[in-house]
Amino acid sequence: MRDLVSCFSENSINVTHSLSSSSLTSSSSSCSRFNTSNACISPSLIPSIQTSITSIYRITLSSSKHLIIKVTWCNKNNHPPQSNNNGLSISVSSADQNPSTSLKLNTSSRFFRKKKGNKSVDSDLGKIEVFWDLSSAKYDSNLSPEPVQGFYVIVLVDSQLGLLLGDSSEETLRKKGFGFDFDFEKSLVSRQEHFSGNAFYSTKAKFAESGDSHEIVIRCNAEKTEGLKQSNHHHHHHHSPVLSVCVDKKTVTTVKRLQWNFRGNQTIFVDGLLVDLMWDVHDWFFSNPEGCGKAVFMFRTRNGLDSSRLWLEEKMVKKDEQDKLDFSLLIYACKT
Prior knowledge:
Layout: H1 4-8, E1 13-17, E2 24-26, E3 49-60, E4 66-75, E5 86-94, E6 101-105, E7 116-123, E8 126-133, E9 138-139, E10 147-149, E11 152-157, E12 160-166, H2 170-175, E13 185-197, E14 200-206, E15 213-229, E16 235-247, E17 250-255, E18 263-270, E19 273-280, H3 282-286, E20 294-301, H4 319-322, E21 328-335
Parallel strand pairs: 1-18, 13-21
Antiparallel strand pairs: 1-2, 3-4, 3-13, 4-5, 5-6, 7-8, 8-11, 9-10, 11-12, 14-15, 15-16, 16-17, 18-19, 19-20, 20-21
């Protein structure tokens, strides 16, 4: 009898880290019909520009308050990351009541054009304070508006730490005068990324809080196909768009004749987690003007027992593992 992973879906893909090295290998339990050993993207290709990234966090304070904090990094001019091009907005709202924003900061405000500062406001949730320092922020080479190091963003609610982003250590922040308790609970429940450019999109994502970061590449290109024989005995060639999705340089989905298969889904396993991959590229082909529409790709982990590591028996799955929130990555891809 086949194991649970291989029986779950005849078209599933299993992507996992090797235990002996940092290289990525396809699990023997995967029953993919695709060749996962081949990289689907040439390293010479230049990916599209990320115009904005929105991360949505669910926060639990020690006072048992549940908050939703939304952080958006944007590239206002679609240029490579520079301090005068990038912007940041933050909103804080209650997760227990009807969604209502208690605090919203954005780059159109005069104070937030500064690369270092703070802002506080009294709200129904309590006193909300935001501290930020982007003066030495450094950005990744993939034209992302989100800094990767040399910065911090801190959100406090009634002097309790709600959110801490950046690479500053606890010791560094204490030296800067921050004396809050660093013990807090946060979960990244959604990440939304907007791209603009050619049909080549590259990003990274974690599908679990304590998991590894995975490279995700999406590309749409033309594949030469043979048509009907003509009277002169020559084959007629035409190009049909093909969609390729890779995780850690492994092809997990290949969709041919994309004009007819513009919506669909695929089940994949990433580090043992069950992930649904869905795509909708309808507007790439049927928008006005044609070819300039926005496609949507979603990677979503299954919540509850379904998202547990599938080779564990049910009695071995801890309750706190079942109660974890699912995570979704949405990629909005504008092909220009």
